[in-house]
Specification:
The complex is a heterotrimer of chains A (353), B (290) and C (439). Chain B is 71% helix and 3% strand. Chain B contains 11 helices and 2 strands. Classes of the chains: A mainly alpha (353), B mainly alpha (290), C alpha/beta (439).
């Protein structure tokens, strides 16, 4: 049994550079607090905690918009709804974070299903622009009922997740890794256990064909929205408890666009793309605090330049350099191999000449 | 009150129409959501401020120079940044967003974040059925109508217009028919930027210049364009007046909720789309698998 | 395969090394680090910085701060909070300021939604934070529930938003009186309230709706709530004109203040405007409104030539000379830093808890007024005390391109005999006079 697991590990993780990198990344994440001690360390941990939350958020966008093709311009809705739900439960009912965060995530699911109603009829840019409207309409409602929502100030004074920054960090890492793995599995088109991955792909590529093949696309779209809402909700709820405030900025357009920037920068439709995107761009923004006048300029400049040369995103670009898919059995191989590790087909057309 | 609603709604709608038609045009032709569209509106406004107030040029010269400069910037943006990644729709959208941020940051560096004012072309106001309308607003409305008529004539009466419409319908077939699609895209981009710049030039004297002035009209024109039907110039025109009137109605009928005007307009857009998913005058993209 | 792995591992470890900060750094002797945090891209943040620099340079030139016999110099650290767009950013900036840059005290802050998380971050490290921008009352109510945690937060300026109501009402009363006398208007005056959509304005709107009729005998004809960043108020102004208002009572802090004043003047709406319009406190207001902002009246803190205390005149003159701008209330960081000097010298320590105790009992004459913090037994501990003899604030009106102080004034709008030298008479806008004298 153990031996089989080890063999799988060798075959499916060590042999594929992308997965190996992911593994190294996860391991490094666990050791980071050891290097970051003292009070300045807690500032750096804060950056990582935020990065972890935004990773979940961005990956959930990738699942919905990248994989299923339901271009969502208002992803902040799920984030904000969860943040506000969590905050209200925590402040008014005094519930603890371990209870409010899952309920916040469920609120995200409900928001996802509500948005999904028009999404069933709309496509492409229409859907994108309608979803854009939802968080802005909700913002209007929040400003109209300030007694309940705190208006511009939001709801502040939430309970902390834990008393120590390091504990917060480990919780965020664990939640992030589990969430990302679940979403990766859900979107894995090659999976033999779950078929959501391949269906999501089919819906994006050609919804009519998918329907013609007997797939209940409506059910899968609902599922995609619910799952995206759930994970974006976890990120939002966690964010609210960590910041100790849920406010209108959780719903603003900036946040909706931010998630698109992270994902497309890293590589859309790849799950690890948004992880890379957030982990590069979010610390970059903190780093650029050194030059506040040109902070956004440099940020935008880097995004433009990278996208011009790597229009599919940086992670996808790197993957294409280090991995090579076997033309016959579709197995991923290290790019330096001449032949496929499983079926010995030549990986490059002219390699055999 | 009714007079006020009608007149203010018409003016608001006219401005929106100028912005929305260009956005709709470039989407129709290039299938590109240009988030930097209203940035050209901002650039033109700052251009006028710079030429007229800092360089103390005559206002007319400043306006012309500013319009030209903005159009050139639009063309350059397209050639340098968008053309080469045109195939990746989401990437294009993101690049335009990043470009918008870059323009905004440049304006902050050059002019600071503080609100600035540009001189009116004509000062004073005129009282129409008891409602005061500044000459500048009347001018805006007049120019908006005139420009839109020109755009309509261009699209329907000239060879170029036919080529643009053909590209919008099916760029591959248009290419096969001997239309230089890349050139058409460039021309459309220039046209759209110029329309946005004209809107900026005529509107800003009544408003305030701030580097973030591009965001709120951007959301509204996206709503308008979707409401009217993507790619439909007629739809954008009518959508602009619908949204304009809704905003003004909210201000008049619900004064304590004037800040909700944007939210109401968006709500109406969502409701209309629920009934007509392709917008008021949109073409159903059912066959076209985007 | 291993060969390929080694560079990978090297890259990874390099990345980690890059991320891990170069901790430590040399600890300089006899330096007090004070962080100045604010939206540095805006006038508010700039003035935070200007006020603080002036104070720090003056103190350092005079030898520094005497801590128990040893002289310390002040080192200012500038932090752009980016608070206008992102409260998350603001909190991170605060934490970086304290932990990485090592600020021992912090002054600044502007937008309430961002100041909340900033306070949280500062309190996490028991760092004294002197607020110089956010007016919301509830910021000072935090310490009521959890004094030990929030005792490090003080508000130096402005006095809280409920006190702004009473100042606005007094200004409104004065303007109304002058208008009734000057134009011979009969019957109760009609007032339109124009308030931006913001939390701090909500409470004020409710107060106005009750007090304007009750205390001043005027009628409220309606309340308009545009967004703080609206750029076009044509529709609102047309509606206000329809309502027959004589006076418009404003609560505006955002950029909306400029198009409002401009369109008011350009469309010659026959109503005078008083209240709060933060844009009208800035020198750029006149140009930005193309002169249509004439007669715009707003509550204010400083004006050229007005001496609130013995220190005001010198401060304002120096500020204008150095930065070519009239200070806004955010330049209260000047007072905040002098306040720190006072308490550090009198206690002879840099220990935060001791300093908090000392600050609670301080009575200091600053450039913006007399600073006494409210006691821990009040509903807003550590808030700056307001009233005659303490901090009062002023109202200014734009009169032909110049910002003139018009309130508190003796004779009109009397307030317990408070007035300052250099205050002039409030003027009825020409457009209003023209409208009421033509028919």
């Amino acid at each position: 049994m153990l031996r089989r697991l080890l063999r799988d590990f060798q075959g499916d993780v060590l042999a594929i550079p992308g997965r190996l990198l992911a593994l190294i990344f996860f391991v490094v994440l666990f050791f980071i607090p050891l290097f970051l001690q003292g009070s300045s360390g807690s500032y750096y941990l804060r950056i990582f905690i935020f990065a972890n939350m935004y990773v979940i958020f961005a990956v959930s966008w990738d699942l919905l918009s990248g994989y299923t093709g339901q271009l969502n311009f208002g992803h902040a809705l799920f984030f904000g709804v969860a943040a506000y739900t969590t905050a209200l439960l925590n402040i008014h009912l005094g519930w603890q974070p371990w209870a409010t965060i899952p309920i916040g995530a469920l609120a995200g699911v409900i928001a996802g299903l509500i948005v999904c109603l028009p999404a069933l009829r709309l496509r492409g840019p229409y859907l994108a622009l309608v979803t854009l409207a939802f968080p802005l309409i909700l913002l209007g409602i929040i400003f109209a009922f300030t007694d309940f929502t705190g208006g511009e100030l939001g709801i502040s004074g939430l309970d902390r997740i834990s008393d120590s920054r390091t504990t917060d960090y480990y919780i965020s890492v664990a939640v992030m890794i589990v969430s990302v793995m679940i979403m990766w599995k859900l979107t894995d088109a090659g999976s033999s256990i779950i078929r959501t991955g391949i269906v999501f792909h089919a819906i994006r590529e050609d919804e009519i064909a998918a329907r013609a093949s007997g797939i209940n696309t409506i059910r899968y779209k609902l599922l995609a929205f619910a799952v995206a809402g759930f994970f974006a909700g976890i990120a939002g709820a966690f964010h609210a408890h960590f910041m100790r405030i849920a406010g209108p900025s959780n719903l603003e357009l900036v946040l909706s666009f931010q998630v698109i920037i992270w994902t497309v920068f890293g590589g859309i439709t790849s799950i690890y793309g948004p992880v890379v995107g957030v982990y590069i761009l979010f610390p970059l923004m903190e780093f650029l605090r050194a030059a506040p006048e040109v902070r956004y300029l440099i940020f935008a400049g880097i995004v433009v330049i990278m996208l011009l040369f790597m229009p599919e995103g940086i992670a996808v670009w790197v993957r294409d350099k280090i991995e090579r898919e076997c033309p016959r059995c579709k197995l991923s191989n290290m790019a330096f191999r001449k032949t496929c590790r499983a079926c010995n087909t030549y990986l490059y057309e002219h390699a055999g000449d | 009150m009714v007079e006020g609603i009608i007149i203010q709604g018409l003016i608001k709608g006219g401005t929106y129409a100028l912005l929305a038609v260009g956005f709709s045009l470039i989407f129709g032709v290039a299938r590109m959501i240009n988030l930097a569209h209203t940035c050209f509106y901002m650039l033109a406004a700052y251009g006028i401020y710079y030429f007229a107030k800092e360089l103390e040029m005559p206002l007319a010269a400043a306006v012309v120079l500013s319009l030209l400069a903005t159009t050139v910037i639009g063309i350059l943006t397209y050639r340098l940044f968008i053309d080469r990644v045109r195939e990746h729709h989401v990437t294009v959208m993101l690049i335009t967003l990043a470009m918008a941020m870059i323009f905004q940051e440049f304006m902050i560096m050059a002019f600071s974040s503080e609100p600035l004012g540009t001189p009116s072309f004509v000062s004073g106001y005129w009282t129409i059925i008891g409602v005061k309308v500044s000459y500048q607003n009347l001018l805006t409305f007049g120019i908006a109508l005139a420009v839109l008529v020109c755009v309509w004539a261009l699209l329907s009466k000239t060879r170029l217009g036919v080529a643009i419409r053909a590209t919008a319908q099916d760029s591959e077939i248009a290419n096969l028919m001997g239309i230089n699609v890349r050139r058409i895209l460039l021309i459309t981009m220039a046209l759209a930027a110029a329309l946005a710049a004209i809107a900026g030039a005529v509107v800003t004297p009544t408003l305030t210049l701030v580097p973030t002035m591009w965001t709120s009209p951007l959301v509204m024109i996206m709503a308008i364009v979707v409401l009217g039907g993507l790619g439909s110039v007629k739809g954008s025109f009518i959508g602009a007046f619908i949204i304009g009137f809704i905003e003004v109605l909210v201000v008049f009928l619900l004064p304590g909720g004037a800040f909700l005007k944007g939210a109401f307009a968006l709500l109406v857009m969502v409701l209309i789309l629920l009934i007509r998913p392709e917008g008021l005058f949109g073409v159903a993209f059912e066959e076209e698998r985007l | 395969m291993l060969k390929k792995l080694i560079p990978l591992l090297v890259v990874c470890s390099l990345l980690v090394l890059l991320i891990v900060p170069s901790c430590g750094g040399e600890e300089e002797d006899n330096v007090i680090k004070i962080g100045v945090i604010g939206p540095m891209q805006y006038v508010q943040g700039e003035h935070h910085w200007y006020g603080a620099t002036m104070a720090a340079e003056e103190i350092n030139d005079a030898g520094g701060i005497d801590v128990d016999g040893e002289m310390y110099t002040i080192e200012l650290i500038k932090a752009d909070s980016n608070e206008m767009t992102s409260p998350t950013d603001a909190a991170a900036a605060m934490e970086k300021l304290i932990t990485v840059d090592g600020a021992q005290f912090v002054v600044g802050g502007f937008r309430t939604e961002s100041v909340f998380p900033m306070i949280e971050a500062a309190m996490d490290y028991d760092t004294i934070f002197l607020g110089c921008g956010a007016a919301t009352e509830s910021l000072c109510q935090l310490a009521v529930d959890d004094y030990d945690r929030y005792k490090y937060w003080f508000r130096v300026t402005p006095f809280n938003s409920t006190k702004l109501v009473s100042n606005s009402l007094m200004t409104l009363g004065m303007a109304g009186g002058i208008m009734q006398q000057g134009l011979g208007l009969e019957g109760p005056l009609q007032v339109a309230i124009l308030a931006e959509q913001a939390e701090w304005a909500d409470a004020m709107v409710a107060a106005y709706q009750a007090y304007v009729p009750a205390m001043l005998g005027m009628e409220v004809v309606g309340t308009w709530r545009p967004s703080a960043t609206a750029t076009d108020l044509n529709a609102e102004l047309t509606a206000i004109e329809d309502s027959g208002a004589h006076l418009i009572l404003t609560i505006l802090s955002g950029p909306v203040g400029i198009p409002y004043a401009r369109q008011l003047g350009e469309l010659e709406i026959p109503a005078a405007s008083v209240g709060i319009n933060v844009e009208a406190q800035k020198d750029g207001f006149w140009d930005a409104t193309e002169g249509y902002g004439n007669y715009e009246t707003t509550l204010n803190t400083y004006a050229e030539g007005i001496a609130l205390t013995s220190k005001t005149a010198a401060f304002v003159e120096e500020f204008i000379e150095r930065f070519d701008e009239t200070p806004t209330y955010n330049a209260g960081t000047y007072d905040a830093i002098y306040l720190l000097k006072e308490v550090i010298e009198s206690t002879g320590t840099l220990d935060a808890d001791t300093i908090v105790e000392e600050l609670e009992g301080i009575d200091y004459i600053g450039a913006g007024g007399r600073i006494v913090f409210m006691g821990t037994d009040t509903t807003t501990p550590h808030d700056v005390t307001y009233g005659p003899g303490y901090t009062t604030g002023i109202a200014t009106q734009w009169q032909d391109g110049e910002m003139k102080a018009v309130w508190p004034n003796l004779g009109v709008g009397e307030w317990e005999g408070v007035t300052y030298e250099g205050v002039v008479m409030w003027q009825i806008p020409d457009r209003v006079i023209a409208y009421y004298t033509q028919d």
